[in-house]
Design goal:
This protein is of the alpha+beta class and 500 residues long. The protein is 35% helix and 22% strand.
Length: 500
């Protein structure tokens, strides 16, 4: 088979490359050796933001770029990327004080092109964050949150609508070159062991923290990465019922940490630790659990949150470009870097919010080998969902359109009733099983939906309701479903549990 471009990596950066390239007239194949959004793109802090700490570090270009992309995603994907109000409390002797904070937020708003900053009285703070100590009130500002895995899948869905071919559980076995070393094709192996050879003019490697080993294998010059692990906790929202996000400096080291309502639960994060052994699956460690609980209880002392309150956890590896300057992990820049050599392009670093920026720069670097690449496609990142009104409550309709865009009516037609005890419609499950390359239950419960993180015992109680759909649409018999259920629960408890 012949393609213009082969993309390695099915996370948000690879997905962005696939969408931008397909939209600009290229024949694209994207492959992912695990599942779509398997890595950091399903294990992030779920924030679409400019990054106040980047502003503090003087990275004005990165902050402005991120804020512009945030604004565009808010416009393009309501229901999937949603505004999130942040609150930072002020107390006597704490830094930054209200004046300094408001000055920083003034610049933050100017870079974003709209005002979101405000000051709240101590009394008003208690309505937004009961129990929070804020003797001098609090500064308020706005960023956004998302479901990172579903955002990745939405981008992949639109890339596919523009003609891109997508294949998860597919690995590169060999890169083919001509006598001058120029990329000319690749050999691939799929989940069933099927092998194929393709022709292509260029390859973009967008494999996140795993770019270093891949680059060494392919002989590609690549940036020196510093993989950093960020761990998060998820609690029932009733345990600490916040109406907005709260950010503060951790009492141990002054690092920024936060807690905010996410999909009916409370998300707490994050750590920033070196993760040198990439073969080791990232997961929450005991010191990280203690660190996050200590930070949360310092800010909300009356809550007395314990490890037993935590429903689930996750840890992702950030693909940070190493400065080599001996900096602390949280001081490393979140800038990205693009390198190109003989038809191979490597894109490393960056953040969730700026995936489209990275994709455009990667394609620009690949332009010498892609004569059919058309001009950039304009300001829009995702196409508006549009279409006729959906027969759902407004919030449900907004959520469904955000997640599935133009396919929302077809998803709803598969089943408009929610899975008991959840917001997830039966139609969402059936659509994913039929059209989103689900191979295992963790694909469905940890990435296509987030039920495995949100439900008690990782959604074990939902498995009987899922079984008939998996048997009908995936062809699993009772023995296969039982095997998948056992595998899934072992994986979820190992990778997403907490220490007692």
């Amino acid at each position: 088979m012949k393609f213009d471009l082969l993309i390695l990596g099915g996370g948000i950066t690879g997905a962005g490359c696939a969408l931008e390239a397909a939209r600009r007239g290229l024949k694209v194949l994207l492959i992912e050796p695990n599942d779509f959004a398997w890595g950091a793109s399903s294990r992030s802090s779920k924030l679409v933001h400019g990054g106040l700490r980047y502003l503090k570090q003087g990275a004005l270009h990165l902050t402005k770029e991120s804020l512009q992309e945030r604004e565009q995603l808010l416009q393009d994907a309501p229901g999937l990327v949603e505004p999130l109000r942040f609150l930072m409390a002020h107390n006597p002797g704490s830094k930054p004080g209200p004046r300094t904070m408001q000055a920083g937020l003034w610049l933050y708003d100017r870079l974003a092109g709209r005002r979101t900053r405000a000051l709240a009285t101590p009394e008003a703070v208690q309505w937004l964050a009961p129990g929070l100590r804020a003797q001098a009130g609090a500064s308020l500002y706005e960023d956004a949150s998302t479901d990172d895995a579903r955002l990745t899948l939405r981008v992949l869905q639109e890339a596919q609508a523009h003609g891109a071919q997508l294949s998860n559980r597919t690995e590169l076995t060999e890169l083919l070159r001509d006598a001058q070393g120029q990329v000319r094709g690749a050999r691939l192996r799929g989940a069933n062991g099927f092998e194929q050879t393709i022709d292509c003019q260029a390859v973009i490697a967008a494999t996140g923290a795993y770019l270093g080993p891949l680059a060494a294998q392919l002989g590609l010059p690549a940036p020196q990465l510093r993989p950093l692990r960020g761990s998060h906790l998820l609690l029932p929202l009733w345990r600490l019922p916040l109406a907005c996000a709260v950010a503060w400096a951790h009492p141990d080291d002054g690092r920024p940490v936060f807690a905010y309502p996410w999909q009916g639960a409370l998300l707490v994060g994050t750590t920033d630790e070196d993760h040198a052994h990439l073969a080791q699956e990232p997961r929450l460690t005991q010191p990280e659990l203690d660190y996050l609980l200590r930070g949360l209880n310092a800010q909300f002392p009356r809550a007395s949150v314990q490890a037993a309150d935590v429903r689930s956890s996750w840890a992702g590896i950030r693909p940070v470009i190493a400065s080599g300057a001996g900096l602390k992990p949280s001081e490393e820049s979140r800038e990205h870097l693009v390198l190109a050599h003989q038809g191979l392009v490597a894109v490393g670093g960056g953040k969730l919010t700026t995936f489209r920026v990275m994709a455009r720069q990667a394609l620009q670097a690949a332009r010498p080998w892609l004569p059919g690449l058309r001009a950039e496609s304009g300001a829009q990142i995702l196409m508006p969902a549009g279409g006729a009104a959906l027969p759902l409550e407004p919030a449900q309709a907004r959520r469904l359109r955000g997640r599935f865009g133009a396919l929302a009516p077809a998803v709803l037609a598969q089943g408009g009733a929610p899975l008991p005890g959840t917001q997830t419609l039966i139609g969402e499950l059936r659509h994913s099983l039929q059209h989103e390359q689900v191979h295992h239950l963790d694909d469905l419960l940890l990435r296509r939906t987030r039920l495995g993180l949100l439900q008690p015992d990782f959604g074990a109680g939902l498995l009987p309701a899922l079984r008939p759909h998996c048997q009908e649409l995936l062809g699993w018999d009772a023995a296969r479903f039982a095997q998948e259920a056992e595998r899934y629960l072992a994986l979820a408890r190992s990778q997403h549990g907490v220490f007692a």
